[in-house]
Design brief:
The chain has 285 residues and is mainly α. It contains 12 helices and no strands. It has helices at 3-18, 23-34, 43-59, 61-79, 90-101, 118-123, 132-151, 161-175, 183-193, 198-223, 230-256, 260-284. Helix 1 (3-18) packs across helix 2, helix 5 packs parallel to helix 8 (161-175) and helix 9 (183-193) runs antiparallel to helix 10 (198-223).
């Protein structure tokens, strides 16, 4: 695998993963037009996902340090019988919420007969020969961004934190394996709609994304059908981490400037085009 391919793939995956435009949707578009309609992944994809996770951790290193401290502190309090969830600090509660949001993802391991498990069933919707489903999901992501941006900064009803975490976890559970959905956009927008501030919402989405990226990255490296050379893997790791770091800075600026609508309209236009192409592909077949 060429070095140039590694650089461009790392660049494309990092940008579409961090920005609310769906990495899986853009990947499906590429596969559709290249004729490579397969769910098989390469080891390089897994390396890049780990690189993106590293970039997020670097950008929010203080947040991850606090999460780690509170995670191990929580276990220590539980062991010493002094755990008091109701009296938890905001940082400890944030950690509890992120852990709770991952609970629905346990459902992925439910056996599904010849398909392996529930995750495999969802994953089979990717690259299925047309862009209809991806177009719908991308356009819906844009609509969700518009709704979320319209309530940002306004006083909205804040749900109990346990309910917030559970709702966000369900959205993340559905977004992870579905081509055309953006995990960052789904978690961020849902967090806004259930009462989180934009500051907490973006950090929450990045924490959820990091954990998912690390797990999927390791799995993809283990099951990848296309092997990556050591040189290509190192370059892809470095490029994806660096691009992710700067993309996060840009995304934070976009949120602060209340300019999410530009990403929203991009998603709506792209999703509409994919929908039309998908319908055409079905008719032609």
């Amino acid at each position: 695998m060429s070095i140039l391919t590694a650089i461009f793939q790392a660049l494309g995956q990092a940008l579409t993963r961090i920005f609310p435009v769906s990495e899986s949707g853009h990947s499906a578009i590429f596969h559709d037009f290249s004729g490579r309609l397969t769910n098989a992944c390469s080891q390089l994809t897994g390396v890049i996902h780990i690189g993106i996770a590293i970039g997020i951790i670097i950008a929010f290193y203080k947040l991850f340090l606090h999460l780690s401290k509170n995670f191990f502190g929580g276990w220590s309090d539980l062991f010493h019988k002094r755990l008091d969830i109701k009296a938890s600090s905001p940082q400890r509660r944030f950690m509890y919420m992120t852990v709770l949001s991952f609970v629905p993802m346990i459902l992925y391991v439910i056996p599904a007969g010849k398909y392996g498990n529930l995750y495999s069933v969802f994953d089979r919707t990717s690259y299925n020969g047309n862009l209809l489903g991806e177009g719908i999901c991308i356009a819906l992501t844009g609509a969700l961004l518009i709704v979320a941006s319209s309530v940002m900064g306004k006083s909205t009803k804040k749900l109990p934190w346990i309910l917030q975490a559970f709702i966000i976890g369900i959205v993340a559970f559905l977004a992870v394996p579905t081509a055309g959905c953006s995990l960052v956009a789904g978690v961020f927008c849902t967090a806004i709609l259930v009462g989180m501030s934009d500051k907490y919402a973006i950090r929450y989405s990045m924490v959820i994304s990091t954990m998912v990226l690390l797990v999927t990255g390791i799995v993809e490296i283990c099951v990848g059908v296309t092997k990556a050379s050591v040189a290509a893997a190192i370059i892809a790791l470095v490029v994806s981490a660096a691009v992710t770091f700067f993309a996060i800075k840009v995304f934070l600026y976009v949120i602060k400037s209340k300019a999410l609508k530009y990403f929203a309209w991009y998603d709506i236009v792209l999703g509409s085009i994919c929908f039309v192409i998908g319908v055409f592909e079905i008719v032609v077949k």
